[in-house]
Amino acid sequence: MSDLELEIKKLIISSLNLEDYQPEDISSEESLFADGLGLDSIDALELGVALQKKYGLELTNVTKTEGKHFYSVATLAKFVAENRAK
User: Fold this and answer.
1) Is residue 29 within 8 Å of residue 72, measured between CB atoms?
2) 60 has which bridge partners?
3) Which candidate, 68, 52, 65, places its Cα nearest to that of 11?
4) Contacts of residue 34, Cβ cutoff 8 Å, sequence gap at least 6
5) How many whole angstroms separate alpha carbon 17 and alpha carbon 36?
6) What pTM, to 2 d.p., does this model score?
7) Rounded to 5 degrees, what are φ and ψ at 21?
8) pLDDT tens digit string along 35-82?
9) CB neighbours of 23 closer than 8 A, spacing ≥ 6?
10) What is the predicted pLDDT for the residue at 83?
11) Residue 33's beta-bridge partner residues?
12) Are 28 and 73 within 8 A, CB to CB?
């Protein structure tokens, strides 16, 4: 697990108040939604806001293109690495 993936897992836990989870409980490859971690659209909005604040991302409208980046911790880490404010 990369340092960025670990940071994102901690951000997911803290921003969504997943008190019963530890970073190692969240798979980097598994879906964050539906059958994976089980997040919903409200969670996605809250996570998007947290990512914007922490990494300076610009998420004006989560389209299908941006939405695919929210599939898993691994896809989020790649998206953050490529788009965070310098």
Assistant:
1) yes
2) none
3) 52
4) none
5) 17
6) 0.89
7) -110, 150
8) 889 999 899 889 999 999 999 988 766 555 556 889 999 999 999 999
9) 1, 6, 9, 10, 13
10) 87
11) 39
12) yes
Q: Tokens in use for 39?
A: 């997040």
Please name the residue ranges forming H helices in 1-86.
3-15, 41-55, 64-69, 73-83
> 16: which 2 tokens?
């969504």
Are 70 and 44 spatial neighbours (Cβ–Cβ below 8 Å)?
yes
* Model pLDDT for residues 4-44, shown as the tens digit of each residue: 999 999 999 999 999 999 999 999 999 999 888 999 989 98
Question: Is 40:15 a contact under the CB 8 Å cutoff?
Answer: no
Tokens 């880490």 sit at which residue? 77
Nearest in space to 54 (alpha carbons), one of 85, 23, 16: 85
CA 6 and chain centroid, separation:
11
Measure the CA–CA gap between 56 and 48, rounded to whole angstroms.
11
Asked whether 32 and 70 are in contact (CB, 8 A), the reply is yes
